[in-house]
Design goal:
By secondary structure, this protein is mainly beta. Helix content is 10%, strand content 40%. The strands form two sheets. It has a five-stranded antiparallel sheet. A two-stranded antiparallel sheet has the order 4-5. It is globular.
């Protein structure tokens, strides 16, 4: 895949985009550079998050990592193509 078609600045422009992942509304909150990954934040109910010792600590949103490119880095990953855009 050509770097001209898909670049980090293009992907960072997606931050704030509302999408549906596995039937649940999410927002793109971050783009990781290596490996190229979109980080989604689920917009459902907050869940209890554990501290480093496994004890319940605070409420937070679930985050999901979606790879941008397939393993060969020749095409877009199926997980990325399965995202539905929301209004």
């Amino acid at each position: 895949m050509s770097a001209d078609i898909l670049s980090l600045p293009h992907l960072r422009a997606l931050i704030g985009l509302k999408v549906r992942h596995r039937g649940e509304p999410c927002i793109v909150v971050e783009v990781l550079e290596s490996p190229c990954t979109l980080i989604l934040e689920a917009q459902g109910d907050a869940t209890m998050m554990a501290d480093m010792h496994g004890r319940p600590w605070e409420y937070g949103q679930e985050h999901r990592a979606i790879p941008v490119l397939n393993e060969d880095r020749t095409a877009l990953h199926d997980a990325l193509l399965d995202l539905d855009l929301l209004d």
